[in-house]
Amino acid sequence: MMNPVELIIKKRNGESLNREELTFFIESYLSGSIPEYQMASLLMAIFHKSMEPDEIQTLTEVYIASGDRITFPKDWHTVDKHSTGGVGDKISIVLAPIVAACGGIIPMISGRGLGHTGGTLDKLESIPGLRTDFSDAAFRSIVEDVGFSIISQSERLVPADRRIYALRDVIGTVESLPLITASIMSKKIAEGAQNLVIDLKVGSGAFMKTIQQARDLGVMLKTVGNNLNQKVSVVFTNMNSPLGNFIGNGLEIFECIEYLQGKPQSGIHEITTALAVEMLLMTGIAASKQEAETKILHAINSGAALGKLQDFITAQEGDPRVCENLSLLPRAAHQIPIYAEGTGWIEQIDSQKIGYALIDIGAGRRTLDTALDYGSGAYLPLKIGDSIQKGETIGTVYSSDVSQGEMVARKIAESFKVCKVPKKREVMLLDRL
Amino acid sequence: MMNPVELIIKKRNGESLNREELTFFIESYLSGSIPEYQMASLLMAIFHKSMEPDEIQTLTEVYIASGDRITFPKDWHTVDKHSTGGVGDKISIVLAPIVAACGGIIPMISGRGLGHTGGTLDKLESIPGLRTDFSDAAFRSIVEDVGFSIISQSERLVPADRRIYALRDVIGTVESLPLITASIMSKKIAEGAQNLVIDLKVGSGAFMKTIQQARDLGVMLKTVGNNLNQKVSVVFTNMNSPLGNFIGNGLEIFECIEYLQGKPQSGIHEITTALAVEMLLMTGIAASKQEAETKILHAINSGAALGKLQDFITAQEGDPRVCENLSLLPRAAHQIPIYAEGTGWIEQIDSQKIGYALIDIGAGRRTLDTALDYGSGAYLPLKIGDSIQKGETIGTVYSSDVSQGEMVARKIAESFKVCKVPKKREVMLLDRL
Questions:
Q1: Which pTM value belongs to this model?
Q2: Which residue from A426, A424, A427, A375 is spatially nearest to A397, judged by alpha carbons?
Q3: Is the same domain home to B350 and B321?
């Protein structure tokens, strides 16, 4: 019988934990014989002392072994995308239908928003009627019929991650390379996709603040995936400003549908294309980058991708008419202008601050029980490098409550920093692996 | 309203927490609005990132403010002793009566054993009838009548420390300079003694393994005490071997009484005298080291110190006849010899291993609920530097169960390491501050 305190002390002192020790600790935690506070202490020790590569690999395997695995026929060439999370990140909602329209098969298990970043499931659930809680069998059947499905993690898929992820969030151990790696890769392997592209966000609005941190994580994700027979590509993308022009659940669905209807949106387009190219190449649907890009453009311009989104909404019991009638999407009653506080070129946008500010009007969650206001959010079309004038309108807050909306508008205004010399627009695609 | 996670992240990133933040965190923890797991995570972050001196000072003050304070009249010149804990440490039980016999006033709040070190309260409670759970008023009255009293920490004395200390023990954050400092000094200041001598144990059987670690802690303890109007002396003593010849609750009382009856015991005598000298100088009872030493010897040789112990036992409802009739003390039925495993000079004695081994026969606690066997323990008269021969008897285990006792005897035998070249006896007193 191992002693949990001795294992905590071992990790605290910078030693490695072996498979037997990690299995004991995590299984005892799941069965309730190790309490939350001992797990919390171990996680903070891992945060500070990190883990060896083979220890991270083992941790991921122990996570996977804690629950069920979904499998798909080998010849389906399944491919999934994972994003490490950012403000305004709605890419999955356009990427999955585009890749499906090109012939890809995407079984996607996604998450809810917590902290300053939003969640794909919350965004999808702003579509009237849409559900994300399907059984494994129903999930497989939607994937087969539509080409993609996006559902929530079931109780039985990687329970170790479900429990530990929720704990990490409230004990300040989110930004840990070994813990992030085990969390992402265990879920992505257990959900059964053979190929995976990771959108690794870098910058002030992301968990990884520097490209070096992000590269370390990227290498680790790829190594662990490959060791567990999953092909992994990593694309590093800029998260210094919110992604796209809208933030907020219903507002982002609005923006996604407009994009699939053919309305240009450069930030979304650039990232979606880069990720879709990887997915089409990995699965062999396209033989070259150029061929992939042609297929992607055609999927959008022909309306095929929008059709896939519509089929998906229907399959998951949402109202598919939203794809033609955007007014069916929730939108908060009041629109409050955001006024620039300074004059100059936008040097910095504190996306994290914006994400947290929007929680106050129900666009995000403070705790897992927070009720969302699907129609609330913000329209923020300006990016780093744009010039603004003090007092000019630089965006709009959508809120059900005017005075709270005004407070949020002020907080968002404060999150824009200007400089007196022209600043270049930032590149969206930073690197790939 | 502060956010606990943000405070954890602040400390995790190595920033200081201010008074308002520490107060919020600790008060919310005590009131139940911050759960154990968030406190556990903060404590592990403090373990890794430590605290600034003024932050440690503040933490100590926040601890003190969490409960009641006991006060004594200023002209009582109260003095207390604190030991950082070691194996076989029975010093309080002879020191308090000696200093009281010299005219000192010692209001001592002590602890129970946990981990490999024993606790003064457990040792005292092996005396038939003796209680340690008195009210503040009864405590004061015993101190006034006898010159000293040794009781347990009440619910209302530094509840922050009581709760956090118990948590630290099970989450692997005991050996943290800021947490040790706040824990010791908050209790010692709240219990009202104007002067304090600290027996800071150093070595393999202590929490502080090196003299440098111990010095850092000593300086911090003294600084915090002085800033809160308590005079503090620190004596650094050797804890590479168990202290004295006996380990085990009733057995140590036996050894204490024999010592006060005049039986020489060099280890106990050296440390007790060093600490008592400090206490007599601090309180002005003696003007010089020499005068102090004369008074101490007289207190022992005249029987005055033994008389004080007897008065104390009576006042705390124990059977005072133990001071004359040692057979009234508990002693386990079976005595099992410990045989040397090697030939040579004793180079090392793993006191920590001995402490843990003795838990198996009830001499110490595995958890706070462990029932003790007051008569169990070991007699270990040999010290580092003594020569032994393989197979020779080097000590005795006292156990109620023969086979368990034999296992413990083997574990203790293993904890003696011999070398082939003569080794000097170790000095007991290492330094003072």
A1: 0.85
A2: A375
A3: no
Residue B5: list chain A partners with CB under 8 A: 169-172
Domain total in chain A = 3
Give Cα separations from A60 to A161, A227, A360, B300, B390 (angstroms). Answer: 9, 11, 35, 64, 50
CA-based radius of gyration for chain B: 21
Residues A375-416: tens digit of each pLDDT: 999 999 999 999 999 999 999 999 999 999 999 999 999 999
Which residues in B have their CB inside 8 Å of a CB on A? 4-6, 8-9, 12, 35-41, 43-45, 47-49, 167, 169-173
Whether B199 is covered by a domain: the verdict is yes
Task: Tell whether the model's pLDDT for residue A47 goes beyond 70.
Answer: yes
Q: Does the interface predicted TM-score (ipTM) exceed 0.90?
A: no
Whether B32 and B118 map to the same domain: the answer is no
- Inform me whether the pLDDT recorded for A192 exceeds 70: yes
Q: Which of A37, A43, A49 to mutate to test the interface with B (most CBs of B within 10 A)?
A: A37
Cβ distance A170 to B5 less than 8 Å, yes or no, reads yes
Residue B335 is part of which domain span?
330-419
Residue B245 has pLDDT above 90, yes or no: yes
Residues near A95 by beta carbon (within 8 Å), at least 6 away in sequence: A81, A272, A275, A276, A279
CA atoms of B256 and B302, how far apart (whole Å): 16
Q: How far is A62 from chain B (nearest CA, A)?
A: 22
Candidates B5, B36, B45; nearest CB to A44: B45
pLDDT digits (tens, 9 = 90+) for A75-85: 888 999 999 88
Give B410→chain A minimum CA distance, Å.
Answer: 21
DSSP sequence for A217-235: HHHHHHHHHHHTT-EEEEE
Amino acid at B221: L
